[in-house]
């Protein structure tokens, strides 16, 4: 099982990236291969001037083409997700998330905008033809300790994240079974 992880915060260190790092640890324990990209891997001019041939965008798209799922993390900015993350998603081909299961993660200053994933990010993931966009994990900054070398989460958040990762993992496994069944049927027609 291979997943792409994408950290969409302009800041490093970052709370949403810390949430992603904790998710990485869980996935690694379950033998999931993770191909990680962070906003800082991309050249700012490529994003600003929509360079569709940016080597990092091509690398992201290639990684997605062989991945089963996408884990994407963002801070809430002005009641939505980060504009820099949008500038990456804008450069992906229209069907970049076809057949992928997606789990979005977001952190915010308060819980006022806890629906931001639902009304802002999810429609974009759907436009990229994601097969299944799971109920995301939303957290406020106070629930995350990202100052220490290994980020830690408040217990209730850690539990919610683990539940979501279990669902993510199971959805990818189901997807693998259904693809194998279709392939088997096609080979025996
Ligand atoms: C430009 C900017 C806009 C923000 N807008 C919001 C907002 O609308 N609602 C909110 O709850 N938090 C907002 N915040 C707070 C961030 O979402 C919060 O600090 C988040 O945890 C940062 O994640 P990061 O450390 O991964 O960048 C904003 C922060 C910045 C810098």
Automatic annotation (TrEMBL):
<dbReference type="InterPro" id="IPR029039">
    <property type="entry name" value="Flavoprotein-like_sf"/>
</dbReference>
<keyword id="KW-0285">Flavoprotein</keyword>
<feature type="domain" description="NADPH-dependent FMN reductase-like">
    <location>
        <begin position="1"/>
        <end position="141"/>
    </location>
</feature>
<keyword id="KW-0560">Oxidoreductase</keyword>
<dbReference type="InterPro" id="IPR005025">
    <property type="entry name" value="FMN_Rdtase-like_dom"/>
</dbReference>
<dbReference type="GO" id="GO:0052873">
    <property type="term" value="F:FMN reductase (NADPH) activity"/>
</dbReference>
<dbReference type="GO" id="GO:0046306">
    <property type="term" value="P:alkanesulfonate catabolic process"/>
</dbReference>
<dbReference type="Pfam" id="PF03358">
    <property type="entry name" value="FMN_red"/>
</dbReference>
<keyword id="KW-0288">FMN</keyword>
<dbReference type="InterPro" id="IPR020048">
    <property type="entry name" value="NADPH-dep_FMN_reduc_SsuE"/>
</dbReference>
<comment type="similarity">
    <text>Belongs to the SsuE family.</text>
</comment>
<protein>
    <submittedName>
        <fullName>FMN reductase</fullName>
        <ecNumber>1.-.-.-</ecNumber>
        <ecNumber>1.5.1.38</ecNumber>
    </submittedName>
</protein>
<dbReference type="InterPro" id="IPR051814">
    <property type="entry name" value="NAD(P)H-dep_FMN_reductase"/>
</dbReference>
